[in-house]
Automatic annotation (TrEMBL):
Domain of life: Bacteria
A single GO molecular function term of this UniProt record: hydrolase activity
AB hydrolase-1 domain residues: 11-244
Entries under PANTHER family matching the protein: HYDROLASE, PUTATIVE (AFU_ORTHOLOGUE AFUA_4G13070)-RELATED, MONOACYLGLYCEROL LIPASE
InterPro entries xrefs: AB_hydrolase_1, AB_hydrolase_fold, AB_hydrolase_sf
Keyword annotations: Hydrolase
Full protein name: Alpha/beta hydrolase
SUPFAM superfamilies: alpha/beta-Hydrolases
Amino acid sequence: MFVQKIGHGFPLLMLHGFPLDHRSLLPFEDFLPETGQWERYYIDLPGLGATRDDTKITCAQDILTRLTAYIDEEFRARRFAIVGYSFGGLLASALAAQYGSQITSMFLLAPETVPAQERRNLAKKVAYHMSDLPDSATQDELQAYKTTAVIYSAESFEAFRRYIYTGLVANAKNPAVEAVMNHPSLDRSPESYLSDYHEPVMIITGQHDSMVGYKDAFHLYESVHEGTFVCIPKAGHNIHVEHPDTVRALFQRWLDGIGEQ
């Protein structure tokens, strides 16, 4: 399992989206307070990124199985918190059921809650042109960027190219990607997994997320016992690269809650 560990203190397990890698969550390094009390575990999920050759993946459940084996070995009885982005949010819901209060809290960013894409309640795709995109952008980069972007700006494009597009490229022609796309569901639904979890959960969604939407995540309201739900206006799927200041404020509030437990 590829893991980039940064810092010391209370562990934060960073679970990226699909089909990306750990770099998609590295913007969170700029969201952390200067107190330096958090140890971040940026992993490449089994079958993806730098972990793609470690094991054969035939479905989403395989990724969860390999991930829990890593958690058992790495953390044992140690408590930790989770940041789950998109597909990482789906995995986080299953981990909550398995580890319970050992996971002190979860921060779910644009979480995938309906694995089958054709069943998702998606928002209408819109775009707001804020500034011209750089001339250096390739057609492949622009196409990938415009698929999810809501705020078109040079700043958000550069962040997308650095943190998101790199993972897409790294997983090109990866057989695990096709396998998970064909078998995207876990054994249970997020609602079922989260119904027995009693620790704080913060769920951040984008109003114009055309990948997973926001309405499906808000349906978790009936299942989450201690939840904070936020829908950010003029935001798409990559909320943390489009609205970094807003996500930073919410993330720091979440971290403060862990410190108060």
